[in-house]
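Everyone, carefully examine this protein record:
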Amino acid sequence: MRIEHVGLFVRDLKKVVEFYEMFFEASASGTYRNPVTTFSSVFLTFPDGARLEVGTREDLNKHHEPGNPLGYVHIAMALGSKEKVDALTEKIAAAGYKHLSGPRVTGDGYYESVVCDPEGNQIELTV
């Protein structure tokens, strides 16, 4: 068994897609739009094949819709080394995005830092 993809609801689809393309080398699919539900999404494919579906709906920009929450708790991106964690943390912070913690070794043994995408969704950068 494997996770096929993770879904993320956002308000600004274009801005979030550009963030993952810029900092995580994601390749974006074309935009899918459903005119009836106003749902739109883009699949982001990362170099190792993992996928993130970033979606939005018009009603998410007006009010919180039960059953369609924004965001997720966090997503962890394995970068392969402490040096890469350090470098990407610095790059994202220097670009003006929120840096919440680390890099550090956590209580459960992960070397990580936590940054946020343009809408405040947490991303753990780990080895």
